[in-house]
Design brief:
With 477 residues, the chain is α/β, with parallel strands linked by helices. The protein folds into 2 domains: 309 residues, Glycosidases (TIM Barrel), CATH 3.20.20.80; 111 residues, Methane Monooxygenase Hydroxylase, Chain G, domain 1, CATH 1.20.58.240. 44% of the residues lie in helices and 9% in strands. The protein has 16 helices and 10 strands. The strands form 2 sheets. An 8-stranded parallel β-barrel has the order 1-2-3-4-5-6-7-8, surrounded by 4 helices. β9 and β10 form a beta hairpin. It is globular, with a radius of gyration of 25 Å. The termini are far apart. 38% of the residues are buried.
């Protein structure tokens, strides 16, 4: 194991169990589903990473792992093909590891790219997959229809009339089959419009969610990501309205810390934007986090704390406490990295819709200095340079981490951050001229074509995004 020593894992497990006994709120539903979805696009986690995840989950009071990596080809792209003997063995290891730790293992399959809903042979293929997983020890299943073409074959349209009805037919049939084999089996369903914006755009057809609420067997749980795919906030009012449509409590598939859509960022901020009152209005919360497993310490640590928090939820304090714990993983071959520098670094990669306060202070001080008609306030210049120099040194120091997988997960992002800091530090050097007259000479690797270069960067400079999300063409350089 790489991000924590075994001794460290034992410490977190014992300390977290004590914490749960002391701080568990009586208002938290006993049967709440809480845990992790491995459901991102990109390279799936390794077995060792999954085993470490299970240790974290036990330590932090999480109880459910959903296996749904988009790039397991047999989960999605070639879902009709059975797993090989070697693949079976890996899945069996995961199922047994969860069972040993009293964690719920859910296997998900995503056939929606090319399924023929009216074909019995397609249902038979899904049953064969479930039979294979049952032989391996799996007891709970999920059927996912997210991120698929919004169209139906003529035969399917003639038989079912709507996308939603066709999907309900498949889900209901599989659920009934599962319950005959496993009377206590749980079953989960991901709709095609899985957030409010998609539903308003009528993805999947008009009245899709109303049809799901009416036709899907009530015992089947339905995933939901909130107002957006990556929702900044999920409110009580939003969920109350959704409940009336779905006719059941939704299960939150939370992409708050997902980063598969942006290779330049990761998110190590706290679980935030969800009020504690929401816990009584949903079946649970499953986090679909960063692709890079070692970067999920704070997101999952704070999720566990949120699930069992008593009273109000202070996300920032939870972040600071979790960062103090995570700091143990940042041992170097030389001098330690100061905790305040790790907080500043983490604030630069906080949450999708916001940076942390220390990062905001760094940015605002730089912005003030750069856009002052003269030098900018001396106090702002001092704040920026002090933080920027510290942060640049922190980025360099991370190359000395003993935990190499953690460094590799960070390295490409922090290299980019360090390059920008180098340039800004030189640009704001105290011995230079006023901002209106100054041009920084090309230094080191800041060369046209190699610095901020490439087709993607060129394309990005063609359009500017306004605060309301709309775009306009950029002025010519």
């Amino acid at each position: 194991m790489h991000a924590l020593t075994l001794a460290g894992l034992r410490f977190f497990r014992v300390s977290s169990i004590i914490e749960l006994k002391e701080h568990t709120s009586q208002s938290v539903p006993i049967d709440i589903i809480a845990g992790v979805i491995e459901g991102f696009y990109g390279q799936p986690w390794s077995q060792l990473e999954r085993f470490q995840l299970f240790e974290w989950m036990v330590a932090w009071g999480l109880n459910t792992y959903l296996y749904a990596p988009k790039d397991d080809l047999k989960h999605r792209a070639i879902w009709r093909e059975s797993y090989s003997i070697d693949e079976e063995q890996k899945l069996r290891e995961l199922i047994e590891a969860c069972k040993k730790r009293h964690l719920r293992f859910i296997y998900a399959i995503s056939p929606g790219l090319d399924i023929n809903y009216s074909s019995q042979s397609e249902l038979d293929a899904l049953v064969r997959r479930f039979e294979q997983l049952i032989r391996l020890g799996c007891r709970h299943f999920a059927l996912l229809f997210d991120d698929i073409p919004d169209r139906m074959e003529a035969a399917d349209r003639d038989r079912f009339g709507s996308f939603a009805s066709a999907q309900c037919h498949i889900a209901n049939t599989l659920f009934a089959w599962c319950r005959k084999q496993l009377p206590k089996s749980l079953f989960f369903f991901c709709p095609t419009p899985y957030c409010e914006r998609m539903e308003k755009q009528q993805l999947g057809g008009k009245d899709y969610l109303a049809t799901i609420g009416r036709e899907l067997i009530p015992e089947i749980d339905v995933f939901w990501t909130g107002p957006e795919i990556i929702s900044r906030e999920i409110t009580v009012a939003h969920i109350a309205e959704l409940q009336s449509v779905l006719r059941r409590k939704p299960l939150i598939w939370d992409n708050l810390h997902a980063n598969d859509y942006d290779g330049r960022r990761f998110f190590c901020g706290p679980y935030a934007g969800r009020p504690p009152e929401l816990r009584n209005m949903v079946r649970g919360f499953l986090s679909n986090p960063n692709n890079e497993f070692p970067l999920n310490f704070i997101p999952l640590r704070t999720l566990g704390q949120f699930i069992r928090s008593n009273g109000s939820w202070d996300a920032r304090n939870a972040y600071l406490a979790a960062m103090r714990e995570w700091a143990a993983s940042f041992g170097t071959i030389g001098t330690p990295i100061p905790e305040e520098d790790l907080i500043l670094l983490g604030d630069c990669y906080y949450l999708p819709h916001e940076d942390g306060p220390e990062a905001n202070l760094l940015y605002e001080s730089a912005n003030t200095v750069l856009h002052s008609p003269e030098r900018g306030e001396d106090a702002q210049l001092k704040i920026f340079r002090e933080k920027a120099i510290r942060l640049r040194a922190c980025c360099a120091k991370l190359a000395e981490l003993r935990d190499r997988p953690l460094f590799y997960a960070l390295s490409r992002r922090i290299w980019e951050l360090r390059e920008e800091l180098d340039l800004l530090i030189q640009f704001t050097a105290p011995d230079r001229e006023t901002q209106s007259q100054k041009v920084v000479q090309v230094i080191n690797s800041h060369l046209p074509g190699t610095y901020r270069g490439g087709m993607v960067s060129r394309l990005q400079r063609l359009l500017l995004q306004r605060p309301d999300g709309t775009f306009t063409s950029a002025s010519k350089p």
